[in-house]
Each structure stands twice: as C-alpha cells, then as structure tokens.
Amino acid sequence: MTGHHDTTGNSPLFGTLAVIGPGLIGSSILRRARQDGTIAARLVACDASPAVRARVAELGLADRVEADPLRAVADADCVILCVPVGAVAEVGAAILPAMKPGAILTEVGSTKQSIIGAITPFLRPDVPFVPTHPMAGTEYSGPDAGFATLFDDRWCLLTPLPDTDPAAVSVIETLWHRMGARTRIMDAAHHDRVCAIVSHLPHLLAFTICGTADDLADETRSEVLDFAASGFRDFTRIAASDPVMWRDIFLNNRDALLEMLARFTEDAQAMARAIRWGDEAFIVDRIERGRRIRRSLLENRQA
Ligand SMILES: NC(=O)C1=CN([C@@H]2O[C@H](COP(=O)(O)OP(=O)(O)OC[C@H]3O[C@@H](n4cnc5c(N)ncnc54)[C@H](O)[C@@H]3O)[C@@H](O)[C@H]2O)C=CC1
Ligand SMILES: O=C(O)C(=O)Cc1ccc(O)cc1
Question: Which PROSITE patterns match (predicted)?
Fold first, then answer.
C-alpha cells in the first residue's frame, strides 16, 4: 500500500520529503530537490549533530530543520535515511512507529544485507521499505560537501525485499531518475558482492597502502611521502574518506569483503611469483587488462 505519490507529470512526487542525516549524500538529495520542483513540495532535514543542523539551516537546504527524528518524520510522505550504515537500522526502528501510513521509508547505505536483516523486525505492513545505494560520492563528508549534480548519470542500485510493494519501488526509481541517476534492481546478496569488489576492497587497499608507506617513513626516518608521485596520490584521495562511514561498511559487509580480499591476495601472490621468476608475459598481460578496464570505463564516461 502506498500513499499518494505522483509519478506522472511535473507535480512533486512527494508532499513532504524528510532526509535524516544531511551529510554528503543527504545534502546532495536536498540540493537537487530544492533545484528541481518535481521532487517534493516541502523538505525536512534532521541530524543528530547540532553543528550539522546549524549548517543545514544556514545553507537553507530545507524548509524545516529538526533535532527530534520523530517530529521530522511525522508528516513526511517519504523518509530517506542518509546516516552511516551502522546507524541505519537503529534510526529506522526509532522512526518507523512515528511515520504516516502509506509513507515510504528508504535509505542510501553502502551495504545492504545487514541493514535489511537488522531493520526487518521493525518494519510495518503499511510503510514500504525500499533500500537503495547511489553509486556516487566523493572522499568528503558533511553538508558542505554535497552538490545538486552528484547523482547525474550515475547508477543507483535498488535492493527491494521479495515482498516490497512494487508501486513503492517504482516511486523510488522515479525519485532517483529525477535526481539524475539511472536505476538497476538487484538482490541484496548480489549487491554486497559487487560493491565488495568495486568499492569496499579498493578503499581497504587505499587505507592499507597509506599505512604501510607511513610506517616505512617512520622506520627509515625518510621522506618517502614527500616524494609521493601520482600513483600514490590517487590512493591518498580514496584514503581520505570518513573513518566512521568506512568502519561501518567493512564490519557490515564482512563476509563478501573478506572473500574478495582473499581472492585479491591470491592474485597478488601470482603477480609476486611472476616478478620473482621473471615471467614477462604474465606481468604484461595483467597490466594490459588494467588498461582495457580503464579504457572501457572512460568510454562509458564513468571515470
Ligand atoms: N560518501 C559517499 O561517497 C557515499 C555514501 N553512501 C552512504 O550514505 C550514507 C551517508 O554517507 P555520507 O553522506 O557520506 O555521510 P556524512 O558523514 O557526510 O553524513 C552522515 C550524517 O549522518 C548524521 N548522523 C549520524 N548518526 C546519526 C543518527 N543516529 N541520527 C541522525 N543523524 C545521524 C551525521 O551527523 C552526519 O551529518 C552512509 O550510509 C554511506 O555508506 C552511499 C553512497 C556514497
Ligand atoms: O570517492 C570515491 O571514489 C567513491 O568511491 C565514493 C563512494 C563511496 C561509497 C559508496 O558506497 C559509493 C561511492
């Protein structure tokens, strides 16, 4: 059962849209909704941090800024949870009893299975829950880091439950289309494996290599980091990401991430062996594969 969500024409999709956690992602949603009159007639923002609330009010990103999540969601037709993965189910459980019948609950966390598992006991039959994951972001966080075009031409993955109302899924797809994104529906287990390899493992590698280089600089009292060339600098961009967000992602996608790390470690060992034995063909083949992948991403304008 869904409320009155207008997916046709140019009238707003929602009367009131509430964003809980207006950081990088939440504030980008608010900015886009502010700019594009077809998303929501009224915008409400709610954050646990007084500094974030003050900044969101200062930037004029919402019509109302609330400290109390129950007040924030009371008249919302759609609530989007944009808090770190570890807080999604907790905040969802707290607000669900206060939501209007027919309103849609959605969230943007980077992992899906553990969020769905933790929130399921609190779900209401009259409040459809649609988990999503916009595949767009930066290494910055907080309300100042957001921008209205963040989701343009990026994928947003939706992982509805088998019994999620298809009408609600369709409303949330329309929301993301109006955010500028393309949508794809998949199951949560597949989502978590895909994201483990294309997003979570690369972040793990970036954090690790920065730590290794830093340890080396300490040990040798040398200036290795001063001479960091562009390859290392590219890793440091990713490694600048928010610690709480990434702690939560690693712990909540543990199985898929550890599986991908084990596969990566095997492949890295194969490279080590090729280097040790001077296997030129193997080394060149690996490097050529990397180039091909980069080129195909650039052709699809993803890089
Ligand atoms: N940063 C990125 O590139 C992407 C992040 N995501 C996901 O989106 C979510 C938000 O990420 P960001 O916007 O980067 O984070 P952020 O750190 O910029 O914003 C999160 C906001 O949530 C607030 N918050 C934390 N706990 C809260 C609670 N219990 N109640 C109310 N507010 C609370 C924080 O004060 C902060 O303002 C995360 O789940 C993340 O995994 C998804 C796609 C990309
Ligand atoms: O900044 C980058 O390179 C990112 O990879 C951004 C990002 C971070 C987390 C996600 O779940 C999706 C995208």
Answer: PDH_ADH (PS51176)
